[in-house]
Amino acid sequence: MKLIKTEDAVGHVLCQDITQIIKGVTKDAVFRKGHVVTKEDIPVLLSVGKEHLYVWENDENMLHENEAAQILYEICRGEHMHGTDVKEGKIELVAEIDGLLKVNKKRILAVNSFGQMMIASRHGNVPIKKGDKIAGTRIIPLVIEKEKMEKARQTGGSEPVFQLLPFKHKKVGIVTTGSEVFKGRIKDTFGPVIKGKLAEFPTEVLGQTYVDDTKKNITAAIMDHIANGADMVVCTGGMSVDPDDCTPGAIADTGARVVSYGAPVLPGAMLMIAYYQKDGKEIPILGLPGCVMYAKRTIFDLVLPRVMADDKLEKEDISILGEGGLCLNCEVCTYPNCGFGK
């Protein structure tokens, strides 16, 4: 930092805010720290009494905050997102599509641990709408060592901190079990709930099949939907551990790879996730617990966005949901802007 005459400051970077005070009109910074002085700025600077200015001295080993901010942005940016204009070392990332946000937690921690730079983001594995803000990044000081920024760039290799996986169009088959519904003794209230949640994503419901509590009939209904081109099958009813609850066994009898039966989430402990192999791809089969029918938000809301983005779920992905897996059933639901599933 050095002090120079204002008339000689063109092209230099200010090291301080320059405040303009006009009684009854304004009291604000007319130029911010980090501003690059232009010829047109000189009369304004002189008018606010600044005949000398503190400016940044060029140093080949240092970067201006805006140059460093661009590097931080490049570390963060994945596909389907863009940055705002850099301002005072800050760039925000904005979604260009609807999709599932994935966060490289190890890398964001590594970058934030360097100090003098920061990344603040939304939680990962949540649905994002086009135009939503994904993250904010900032360089803290006016200047920062080039070496530090290069070390930050090297953390985690070439993988960006953020990825936005687009939701895929899926044809969905629904299998509703239960003799009471199959025989028309009660009206099905599960199907409309499932269809409503599926409608939040690019889906086409191929049909809803009603079957009794016979395991082989449930298995056959699942396989019929797959044979008819379903990219995903959702099963409702018969998911508990009672002797006459046959849906988990029926899903297993399809030959699908069972990832998990049970989840550390309330509501939603009796969830089942399996993948059926067909023509080189894995078709998800979800067995949904009864709570999905009446609770505002459940395990289904946590796994559905990931399934829709073809984000393959494994046992660990379910087990890790225990912390944050308790829905508080708030009177006014704000999900996903709450702690559930985070």
TrEMBL record:
Highest taxon listed in the record's lineage: Bacteria
Keywords linked to the UniProt accession: Magnesium, Metal-binding, Molybdenum, Molybdenum cofactor biosynthesis, Transferase
UniProt KW Magnesium keyword: yes
Task performed by this protein: Catalyzes the insertion of molybdate into adenylated molybdopterin with the concomitant release of AMP.
Metabolic or biological pathway: Cofactor biosynthesis; molybdopterin biosynthesis
PANTHER family recorded: MOLYBDOPTERIN BIOSYNTHESIS PROTEIN (PTHR10192), MOLYBDOPTERIN MOLYBDENUMTRANSFERASE (PTHR10192:SF28)
EC number(s) given by UniProt: 2.10.1.1
Family: Belongs to the MoeA family.
A matching Pfam family: MoCF_biosynth
Protein's recorded name: Molybdopterin molybdenumtransferase
Organism of derivation: Brotonthovivens ammoniilytica
Name of the top EC class for this enzyme: transferase
Catalytic reactions on record: adenylyl-molybdopterin + molybdate = Mo-molybdopterin + AMP + H(+)
Domain MoaB/Mog per the UniProt entry, residue ranges: 173-309
Entry annotated with the keyword Iron: no
Cofactor section: Mg(2+)
